[in-house]
């Protein structure tokens, strides 16, 4: 065992491969192969020996560069928010809220940002306060992708306009990517990816360029995709998918 690895070794801890298996990364045997292949690091040090023990409460473990969530009390879920639902956990007007869809989770979950009441699609909820903070902080520039049905026939030149940027009442903003999916005489379908988290930013951008939004769906948040989720459905994010999300915001 190397000197660096010895410094990481905690005789009272659990074997590294067992910790990885318990975190849902892989079976214990597959975790051993990962360790021997140099794919696992503990506190920034690559570990190749199978005998190392770590404290899962304090060790920072990465597999292939992605963080492994070791605290089993911390969970993150993806919800497909239906239209007409407010992005809060309670509502004094009696409207449906995000809390109505995560009642099976006893943890106190917090929503990561918001979708306006008319917008449907992917929204994340978590009880990991640091992850929620980073995902919503503008400095981490987490990209979000939307599909919008808009009024009118969108012209090819709009892509350049949106990616170069426009100015709204609260300042300039641009799309990281703008794709025209379908064009008809009365309406068009576009895909827009941007990292801005401003209120109703997609709707305001499309209004500004003369194509008001008729329908809006968020399909992706960071590396998390809505996939096969249907309105009202929830799934837990774990393993490498969660690790990649955490790494995206420097965790």
TrEMBL record:
- Stretches assigned to the RNA-binding S4 domain: 14-73
Keywords attached to this entry: Isomerase, RNA-binding
Species of origin: Arcanobacterium phocae
What InterPro entries does the database record attribute to this sequence?
PsdUridine_s_RsuA/RluB/E/F_cat (IPR042092), PsdUridine_synth_cat_dom_sf (IPR020103), PsdUridine_synth_RsuA/RluA (IPR006145), PsdUridine_synth_RsuA/RluB/E/F (IPR000748), PsdUridine_synth_RsuA/RluB_CS (IPR018496), RsuA_PseudoU_synthase (IPR050343), S4_RNA-bd (IPR002942), S4_RNA-bd_sf (IPR036986)
GO molecular function of the protein, one example? Answer: rRNA pseudouridine synthase activity
GO biological process annotations for this chain's record? enzyme-directed rRNA pseudouridine synthesis
Family designation = Belongs to the pseudouridine synthase RsuA family.
* Superkingdom of source: Bacteria
User: What chemistry does it catalyse, as a reaction equation?
Assistant: a uridine in RNA = a pseudouridine in RNA
**EC number, as in UniProt:** 5.4.99.-
Query: What is the name of this protein?
Result: Pseudouridine synthase
**Which one Pfam family would you cite for this protein?**
PseudoU_synth_2
């Amino acid at each position: 065992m190397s000197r660096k690895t010895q410094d990481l070794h905690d005789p009272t801890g659990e074997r590294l491969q067992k910790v990885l298996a318990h975190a849902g990364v892989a079976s214990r045997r597959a975790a051993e192969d990962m360790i021997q292949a140099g794919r696992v690091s503990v506190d920034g040090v690559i570990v190749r020996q199978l005998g190392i023990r770590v404290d899962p409460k304090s060790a920072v473990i990465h597999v292939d560069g992605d963080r492994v969530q070791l605290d089993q009390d911390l969970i993150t879920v993806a919800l497909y928010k239906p239209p007409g639902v407010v992005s809060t956990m309670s509502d004094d007007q009696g409207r449906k809220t995000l809390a109505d869809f995560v009642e099976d989770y006893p943890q106190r979950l917090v929503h990561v940002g918001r979708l306006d009441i008319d917008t449907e699609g992917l929204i994340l909820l978590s009880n990991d306060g640091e992850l929620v903070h980073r995902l919503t902080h503008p400095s981490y520039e987490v990209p979000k992708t939307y599909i919008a049905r808009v009024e009118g026939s969108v012209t090819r030149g709009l892509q350049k306009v949106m990616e170069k940027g426009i100015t709204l009442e609260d300042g300039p903003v641009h799309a990281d990517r703008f794709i025209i999916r379908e064009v008809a005489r009365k309406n068009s379908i576009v895909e827009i990816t941007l990292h801005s988290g401003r209120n109703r930013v997609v709707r305001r951008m499309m209004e500004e360029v003369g194509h008001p939004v008729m329908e809006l769906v968020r399909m992706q948040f960071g590396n998390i995709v809505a996939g096969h989720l249907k309105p009202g459905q929830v799934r837990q994010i774990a393993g490498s998918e969660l690790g990649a999300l955490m790494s995206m915001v420097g965790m």
